[in-house]
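Table S2 (continued). Query chain:
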Amino acid sequence: METRKMKKRVIALGLAFLMGLSPFGSAVTYASENNTESVEAEAEVVISPDTAGIEAKSSVTAEDITKDVSDDTFVVEDCMEGIIYDASTEEVTLAGIEAEGGGAYHPDQAGTYIANYMVVPKDQSDVYYITRKVVLTDTEGEAHGEANGGDRQKEDTASEEDSEDASALEPEVKVVSGAEDVTLEAVRQLEEKIESGNVMVFSGAANNFSARSSVTLEKGEDIYYPDYIGNYLTSWFWVNGKIAYCLESHKATPPSGDYVAEVLDSNKALQKILYYGYGGAGDVTGSYLSGKSAEEKYVYTHIAASYSYAGEAAFTGCDYNDLVNAGVIAYIDYLTGMEEPPKGEVSLSGTSVKAVRSGDVQRTPDIKLDGDYRNYISIDIPKNVTGYNKSKGTSATNGKLQVYGGDTFYLEAKMTVSGAYSSGSLKGSVGETWRTLVLTTGEADQDIGVFESESAQPVSFKVDWLEMARIELEKKDKETSHPLSGAVYGIYTDSACKNKLMEMPVTDGNGKAVSDYFDADIKKVYVKEITPPTYYATNKTVYPVSVTAGNMVKVEAVDQPIKGEITLKKIDVETQAFLAQGDAELTGAVYGLYAKEDIQKPDGTGILHKKGSLIQQKTIGEGGEIKFQDLYPGAMFIREITSPVGYLPDPTEIDATLTRESPEKEVVVKAVTSKEQVMKQAFQIIKVSEDGTQTETDLVKGAEFTVYLISDLSEVKDGSLKPSNGSGYTAEDFTAYDFTKETPAVTYENGKAVKVPVLVTDGKGYAKSVELPYGAYICVETKTPANLKQVNPFVVTVSMDSREPQQWRIFDDRPYDFLLKIIKKDAQTNQPVLKNSAVYKIYDCEKEKYVEQVIQYPEKGKISEFSTNSQGFLVLPQALKAGHYRIEEISAPDSYVRQGYEQSLNDGETVFSPLDVTNKGIYEENPKEGIELIINTDTPHQIDPDTGAYLVEVAQYNDEQVGSLTLRKVGGQLKTVKGESALEKVAGFFSGLKDAVTGSGTDGTGIRQEFIYEEDSVEGAVFELHAKDTIYSPDGAVDEAGNPVVRYQKDDLVATLTTDAEGTSVVNNLPLGTFYLKETKAGENFVLNTEQKEFTLSAGDDTAAVVYEGVTYKNERQKIKISIHKKDSISDKPLEGVTFELYAGEDILSAQGKILIPKDTLIETKTTDEEGNLTFDSEVCHGKYYVKEQHLPGYLPNEEIWEFEAVYENQEESLVEITKDIRNQPTESHFTKTDLTTGEELEGASLQIIDSENHIVEEWISTKETHVVYGLPEGDYILHEELAPLIDGYVSAADVEFTVLEDGSIAEVEMKDEYSKAEISKTDITTGKELKGAKLQVLDKDGKVLEEWVTDGKPHQIEKLPVGTELTLREITAPEGYVTAEDVRFTLEDTREIQKVEMKDECSKVEISKTDLTTGKELEGAKLQVLDKDGKILEEWVTDGKPHQIEKLPVGIELTLREITAPEGYEIAEDVKFTLKDTTEVQKIEMKDARIPEKPVASVPKTGDDPLKPILLLALCAVTAVAWVAVTIRRRKRKKADEKE
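Corresponding output:
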């Protein structure tokens, strides 16, 4: 024993020195005796490099700790376990941690780690460091020692890393060297290394085995170790044809044969050696042991395998130094340092997945491939599918995707991909899984190890792609076929297009729109236009579309552009009809339709008509109207191109804009009217009388003149009066004409004809006609003053339009001293008023009368009123004599205040100019005095260059007339609230009390607080005042370019008005003209009024200095709509009958601040309709509110209070819609119908839920799934089985009572069905005893076998036979000796009791006769037997002269009647073969005997024993003995030879 210990120590010494150079690293591995004494390490102080040389003062100690890697609570950074310190005086933190050998810290790997802690004293003294060991263990991989055969030990290593644990529990080793070349110093150093943990000790440990299997071991030739290793041998081994190795060198070699192998997975080192060693699947000896023979490689691997399995016993017969020198130890180190052999098994986290939509693609859920990271599968990715390896960041399209063990991948496809994808069988690249098999060949023989492979099973998966379809719509112009954008189509599931599936996107610039994907199972959808493109009519065509999964169906649709038609009616402005005046004509007027703005082609391809271009031209015919047709909508106007004869050209641009009213209207119709103004002019006459000798002519008073339209004279009309000159009528043509029957000419006022008044000269001989329409007139003196001669008719032709009358006058010139020039000027601009005439009178203050002067044109006469001309001045026609004069204005120019009627706008001391538009000031009268002149030779004057006359010039200023606008804004304001009266509240209380007592319901819904709004002023509204048309300076001034001076361009902003608390706003000093108001801010809680209100400021006469205008705007208040959509949270179905209460969330105030409704007052109660919708009827104002829900039976109470605020935010919205979707959680009850025995779900049971009032509230047929019922009101119920699955052999179960609570709990109700139970007896019809051996069947009505058995003498129990349907009990094979019974038909009842069915069998009956062959007489004394086919005697008897009765002989099989002994004197008859029929009748069998003939007696030889038999037997025994001795000797020799090995 001492010698063995010495050998071990020498081996340890040599191994320690040599392995220090091996690839194991800094730790040296060697074999030693197994000593499990643990060594505790003490904490030691380590001085950090920064504090080297400074004496460390330590008060902190740290004990080593051991933790398992599976301990999730252990975090090294936070663990202070085992560290003793005073937290009040110092702080301890982890400074770093690393593996004992210098590697990184791995919290998930077992090993020994050095933790370095920094200690920071709080007294400002120096920082120092302490260290300790942290040992991590892996309990799943720890070796467990186990004695096995005394000195045999096996190493169990969970993984490579487990070898590091040796330093945690180091054996105490004493190194003793027996080698001469090893010094004592070397031994001491080795001992120090062992103690310090720098040498790792391998000890054998028991291996853990798992599965067992039978294998065949084949032993080959012996292999002797190379002499450079040692003097020993091993043998070639094969297990199931694979190279194997003996694992215990010190034991005898086992023979070939069949053995039981056990799987050893725990010894990872042995796995690596058998896999990477010689002959293994990962054989590395070709490179690592290159140059070595096969036998050498085998021996190296054999020693390595034996060492990993049995420890130092592997080195039996070898010198350790030789093993080191030969590289065997390094070879062991190399193999055990390799990775674990790859594993071929792979599995998928999902094998049948369904794709889900992800944006515009579909993808599978993530699938993980579990397996060795070196093992991969290649997935064939089909067309239009991309595979993504998330872990590797790789992808493949239409190719192969490689996925390694541990990787996560998924497939992604276009939405057009449908159907199912199957990956097929996916084999891992490794393909095989390796396992270590150890053959235990006997206590004295070696264990044999082999690394055997198994084919790894392939994996596969299936993907069900989405079945989706989509539609592509192409929209075109029906006329041009150009694509149209802006169309919106809907996809519907019904041909009536009421059930919209989805709305398609707006068609793009190419006229195309592609729908979202939808379920292709719909098969057929309908496409219809919802919104057409701008300027197009809605296409009402419904397009049926058949869809299939994965396809996009194209639909082409066209739209008809909306067209327009404009009708222009032509009328005379005064006749107000298509009726011309005078000789004018309305026909022949030519009109043009022009583009006001560029008119685009409706299909968007460009401009159809440019701005200002002529679109169409039409001429007025006899019908008086024209039509512009086939027009495209747009901004247009109509303007007269050519005016008709006698009418003024009309420059008016008549708005003819066509606007698309509705896409439902294909043609937009518009009608306009053009009013023509006939040319007009008056004429005036002065009637004088003179004899030619008078100094002055006499003015004639009282002469009357009548005017006739020549073309209306009867003789002209009928053609009887012809023009004397052949071309046109002259005055001479009417000298003798009789006018007494003719009608005077007419003019028109407001559509009515008015005769032209007779002209009567006044005292001055003056007469003036009304303005006559275009035409030729004859003026006839119809009344002549006494003693005067009638003047001849004269023709007056009106061929132009003028407000100046034609002058028919006689005048006489007279000289004046001074000519007076009056210049009319604008008081604000100081410019001459050019546009309109001012009329003056000149008052002679000395003569105290107005000046009259004679004019010669157009007729001679006297005038006393004088008008300014187009240059803004007037010069009196005759000179005035020197004197005192006053200029009086009797008519101011348009838009000016006549002198003497002026007013001023004053704001305190401030006086505003009429040009200053302002909202301030008050108008006050401020009349101006007239101009007085004293003309004498000293008066400043000018000399007229043409006549040389003196010219006195005077400027007279006029204020411009201005306008004042008062705007008033009104709207509905909350004034009061009409609530429930006290009597109504008391009635409501008692009604509720009654409902609570009786359980009856009273409709308590309705408005409780009615909001009353009244029209009142609105403060804070803002308006813009714009010029409707261009407003020019009224003085007619022009700029340098000759254009009129503009005050405001069209649409210019003139002023901004804001209403005050009274709802009014005023703006003063507006110029005369047409304006429009536009509201820009509606005022709090009101809707913006988009109406533009126009008004015109125009003075009725020139005495009005200020024109006042008032405009009132009424705004609608912004209404509040509070809606609730109530749904079941599970089914998403709307809930009807849910009552909600609307409350005030704050005090509701009137416009004056009075509290009308206190906070928390109930305003209204209302119940949802059948669609689950509710809209409160109360016209609430803006503010805070909240809604509470009343409890709905069958649902969990909803305590949520919906608080909201109706906020005024958008003044353009007439309605603020506040909507809440509320979902209620129904009660949930689960019902399972199960088999009483197996607990499995049953299909086909008809079940009912019955409430406490015996009403059926739910019915269903059970399936394999749990039946879920939602919305049962709280209460007690019964689950009743109306009909069990009788056909499946079940009977109805008892009612199950259960309770539903509205507390969120789920009622789990299970009803268990029992099987039908039948007890079937097979009995003897006579004895009633149960029979054995009958083969019976139970069949259903279709002949299907439901049960088959052979009777065993007991009643047969059957469960689950169909109930309520006729069944058949059939005997297939009767018991031996019985005949087959007739079928028994039976029907099981629906009961849980055992039901009994009985079938009775009758035995077979046979009568056997033994008769004389000749006489047929029954014989006595014959011994007969009945035998079956196997020769078994079934019956034996001796005949008694009567037929022998036998019962229960087998039926249907051949039997033999044999005569054993014949009656005396008879020969034994031949056997009679017979088969009994399957019948209850007695069957007869007869055997006939013949008599023995008489013959002489002869002797018969007798058989005996062979005399040679004893000799032969003795010889055989001798030979057997010799063979046994030889075999025994051979076995003993072989055993000795094995022991020598």
